[in-house]
Amino acid sequence: MKQLIILLLSIIVLFIGIHVYTNYQRFHGVKSEYKTQATLDLNYYDTSVITNYYRAVEELNSYVRMQWAENSIDVRLPQNDTQETKDALLEYNKKLAEVKRLENKLSFSAQLKKQGFNNQDVQVCEQTGSTIKYNDWLSNNFLIQTYRTNPEKYSLKIGDYNSFVYELQKKLVQKGYKIPVDGLYRDITQKAVGQFELKHNLLPDGKVDSMMLAYLLK
């Protein structure tokens, strides 16, 4: 009997240890760090953008770890909708949006340089008549890259509130849909997505997927 109790206690301790170690690895290991999948121009004409980008990434990663360590909130995959979680998620999305904004600048510059542009050309492209196309590229790239990071999350559901929804709403408005642009995925936005999907012979379920984005960003 004594040996059985010792065995059971050993198993319990083992499971607790595995759980603690898994959580530690989850938020302190490499997998918890934000990593860009884009090709960045590390010789960008404005070096402060590069510095600010890496600082923004570090602040984002630190915020993820801090929220988990101090409040047990996983801002990347929230498990509840308490006000504290919503506030943390909103702040996380702000930080992520800043990372993406700077990342898109550096990615766009890298794309131009592949076509033979130099730093002066890139600067002119950003500051002249090409600004509209440049901003469109930033917005499109943000939607594509963000969706790819988590297709299930960014297929969207009622109540989602983030920068991805905000950019999606802007695109829908450009297509003629009269909806608010506030970053909140409510009924009216879902209905617009469904109408857009129906117009392009897609499943009108009001959810975002790669095909819907492909048509939206044409």
Automatic annotation (TrEMBL):
Coiled coil: none annotated. It comes from the Bacteria. SUPFAM superfamilies: PGBD-like. Pfam families: PG_binding_1. Residues 163-214 form the Peptidoglycan binding-like domain. This is Putative peptidoglycan binding protein.
